[in-house]
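User: I'm putting together notes for a lab meeting next week and I want to include a structural view of one of the chains we've been expressing. I don't have a solved structure, so I'd like a prediction I can at least talk through. The sequence is below, exactly as it appears in our construct file.
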Amino acid sequence: MNVLAIALFGVLTAFVVLQTFYVLAFVSSMNLPSSKTIQDELLPKAVVILSLRGADPFLADCVRALLYQNYPQYYLHIVVDSQEDPAWNIVQETILRVGARHVQVSPLIARQNTCSLKGSALVQAIKALDDSYQVVAFIDADVIAHPTWLRELVVPLMDERIGATTGNRWYITQTGQWGSLVRYLWNTVAVVFMCIQQAPWGGSIAMRLSVLRRSGLLEKWTQSISVDTPMLGALQAMGLNVKFVPTVLMPNREECNLARCLRFMTRQLLSTRLYNPQWLLIVAQVFTSTLAVVLTIVLLLIALSRGNIGTALGIVGGFASYILALAVQLVLVQQVVRRVFRARGESTTPFSALMMAKILVAIPLTQLIYAVTVVSAILTQKVEWRGITYQIKGPWNIRLIEYRPYQLSRQPIDTNFSL
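Assistant: Thanks for the context. Below is the predicted structure for the 419-residue chain, given as structure tokens.
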């Protein structure tokens, strides 16, 4: 038993060491100097595209922030799934209160049955653009853009070697619900890996319009379930890079329960399975570390049942060291992210002692749920998103089974809950 315990701790130690390298690389990327400033007259004309289905908790704030961007020439194009959608009135009322004219709101008309509704919305909006637009940016409805969001995404595109610029989502849980905690911990790991791998996030991304049209992405989007995951391969095929912009790490203060968290993680991992060439490596890392955790717990139970207190204490100490090492990594990443938020004047609240205690429990829970959702993503052949079911036969063989407008009754009762 002792030999097996030592072997398991060796696996967990190797996992911690590997994760430490990723975390240090992420921290280094967050400390890189900001992009140089560019005079307004040199900034290219840009369009921001927001596709909507359902009224996200902070949708009015999202739209209002997009209408007040510190950028000389830009236009906001919002594509709402239908005029019956609860988002339609919220958008119209927000625009009316602001009195904005640099915005267009359209219902989704060119709906494809071979891709996601978001893909259809983006393709519809892009095909309507004239050649005066040089840059196109995409944003999700759960993002509240700070005034320089668009400028920070566009400036690095002045380098012709960069095909796209991207930020990422950072969850901030305030209630300590288990679903919110698991999503926060899982997303923290995902953000670190995506930064290292230069993987784009569709919630905050910008591209030169000419690159987008030449990349073949418009055609891919009409056949895929994901918009952002296929981007990296398409840009790499053109010899272009994706640049992670640290200042465009965006806070998300929505909450979710454990059931919604499981569905969210499964959808995200499904896109990874379909379009990320490193999927098998991700699966191997998840199952190896999770199996080591499960076997460690089993060994602890066996040692306790046999009254082998010395072995049990050794296992508890080793496992606690593993959890604490991951917690230290989490705190390190959290600190650099909070520094970005504070620089923008956004409030950040340190974790309370109770929250930290729950996070220590949530770390192994997240690892177990991660493995479960990986299995779910492997087995999934149908996925539901906001009331629409898609059949998945392959990466480029997607079928929207049945369309219906988004129902107001599907909105969560808690206005801070994610859709």
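A couple of points you could mention at the meeting. The first helix runs from residue 2 to 30. Strands lie at 46-52, 74-80, 103-107, 135-139, 162-171, 204-208, 241-252, 382-385, 388-394, 397-402.

User: Perfect, that's what I needed.
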